[in-house]
Amino acid sequence: SNALYPLESMPRWMQIIAYANPTTYVVDGLRQTLFANGALPVVLSMAVLTVFAVVCQWYGLKSFQRILESR
Predict the structure, then answer these.
(1) Where are the alpha helices (H) located in 1-71, listed in sequence order?
(2) What are the sequence ranges of the domains in the chain?
């Protein structure tokens, strides 16, 4: 994530990994909200985090249903 190092200073391969990490969007959203100097718009950070939360909830629900059905 970009919690310790800015995305611009990372090599390209590391930037790709950072963009796949939800922490990047949390940290950048906080920076943009508190200091107005984030690299990404707050709306983009919130959208990515919302999609990530929905996907995780859906996956967790399906996994739990499979566990219950196997008993």
Answers:
(1) 12-19, 22-35, 42-69
(2) 7-69
